[in-house]
């Protein structure tokens, strides 16, 4: 039998040939051509088209082509029915159907990206489905960690020992982040979590969640405001800039915003803070 489908196969168009070779016709031949040529080439080669619209061997409702082959040829093997669920989930982006579907999609997409020749892609894909079939028939109940005591010890390590050991060590991203903030605080006072997460190649949600552990129990925004206030204090103590100028130089939107945040951090307004500093400097007995 000859079978033909679209070029650049990933899920269904490799799973189906594997099923045909292993359970229907071990001498079957397969052809991959551009989508627009499938029907014409099928007629010329006397091949059966599959996994394209408006042919017999295709998707039906929520079922993919692999499901149809299993039904059509009355394949009752439980391992194949397990694989059918995985293939359907991967091929229709329904990874909730089987927990293995997302893994099959990831491997198939990577394989197609790395291998440009469709026949070589099919050859390598057959190996993957042979392995998946062995797992489906014989290994589903087997766990990677076989020793139950070993598994328990690993759980203890992950939950307690590892957590305690990492609490004392500052991760590399936190050290790098401290350097980034230190380097940019004088020139980029509107530094954002999104910007630094891109620089560190750390997801912003993770960075936001973990930040306070290594930065004085403050959130990212609170820590940046603290540094801006510290810079403002230095300017108040050592410069003749007006409050509006200091507000601008420390990245606040306006003087009133600067005053409100400064008072929240120090208990004094910037003007009172500056006057008290001047008074202490002028009074030697202070």
From TrEMBL:
InterPro entries: ChrB_C (IPR018634), Homeodomain-like_sf (IPR009057), HTH_AraC (IPR018060), HTH_AraC-typ_CS (IPR018062), Tscrpt_reg_AraC-type_HTH (IPR020449). It holds the Pfam family ChrB_C. SUPFAM superfamilies: Homeodomain-like. SMART domains: HTH_ARAC (SM00342). Residues 175-276 form the HTH araC/xylS-type domain. Keywords: DNA-binding, Transcription, Transcription regulation. PANTHER family: ARAC-FAMILY TRANSCRIPTIONAL REGULATOR, HTH-TYPE TRANSCRIPTIONAL REGULATOR EXSA. This is Chromate resistance protein. It comes from Agaribacillus aureus.
């Amino acid at each position: 039998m000859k079978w033909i489908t679209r070029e650049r196969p990933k899920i269904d168009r490799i799973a189906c040939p594997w099923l045909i070779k292993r359970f229907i016709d071990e001498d079957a031949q397969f052809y991959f051509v551009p989508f627009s040529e499938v029907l014409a080439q099928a007629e010329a080669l006397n091949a059966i088209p599959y996994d394209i619209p408006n042919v017999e061997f295709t998707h039906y409702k929520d079922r993919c082509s692999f499901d149809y082959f299993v039904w059509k040829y009355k394949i009752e093997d439980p391992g194949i029915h397990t694989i059918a669920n995985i293939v359907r989930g991967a091929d229709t982006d329904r990874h909730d159907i089987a927990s293995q579907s997302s893994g099959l999609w990831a491997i198939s997409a990577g394989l197609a990206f790395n291998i440009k020749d469709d026949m070589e892609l099919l050859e390598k894909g057959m190996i993957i489905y042979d392995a998946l079939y062995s797992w489906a028939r014989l290994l589903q109940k087997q766990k990677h960690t076989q020793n139950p005591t070993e598994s328990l010890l690993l759980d203890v390590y992950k939950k307690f020992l590892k957590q305690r050991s990492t609490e004392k060590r500052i991760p590399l991203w936190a050290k790098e982040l401290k350097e980034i903030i230190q380097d940019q605080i004088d020139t980029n006072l509107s530094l954002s979590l999104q910007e630094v997460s891109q620089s560190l190649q750390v997801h912003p949600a993770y960075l936001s969640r973990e930040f306070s552990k290594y930065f004085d129990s403050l959130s990212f925004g609170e820590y940046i405001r603290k540094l801006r206030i510290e810079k403002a204090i230095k300017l108040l103590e050592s410069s003749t800039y007006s409050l509006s100028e200091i507000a601008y130089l420390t990245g606040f939107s306006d003087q009133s915003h600067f005053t409100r945040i400064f008072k929240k951090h120090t208990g004094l307004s910037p003007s009172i803070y500056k006057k008290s500093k001047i008074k202490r400097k002028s009074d030697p007995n202070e």
